[in-house]
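Quick start: load a record and inspect it. Here is Parvalbumin:
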Amino acid sequence: MAFKGMLKDEDIAAALKHCAAADSFNHKEFFAKVGLAGKSTEDLKKAFYFVDQDKSGFIEEDELKLFLQTFSAGARALTDKETKVFLAAGDADGDGMIGVDGNQITFTHFYQTSNYVLDPIQLAK
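Running the structure step on this input writes:
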């Protein structure tokens, strides 16, 4: 498992169970349940590169769709709606990707958006 030593297996299992149904994924809740909320910037970088499957330095929509499978190979893919909401939460510069920009760590916002609220209906338009 990619997160061995960083996250607890039982927290991962509980977080995945919590969002097992389609359209039930909420990134803020997932990060809190799995133990990523409040992690150091260094740990968040490690988590980012686990999700960045092609090692491009960016998390693209197709990689984000398979986000849960980063935690468990048998996990479901995110729905298109969930993926779009999730991407919008982390895409600080509007380029359609989540990335690291020089010294500015865009993905920190992605993991630590406790007060960030998105309207999925607006995103679907």
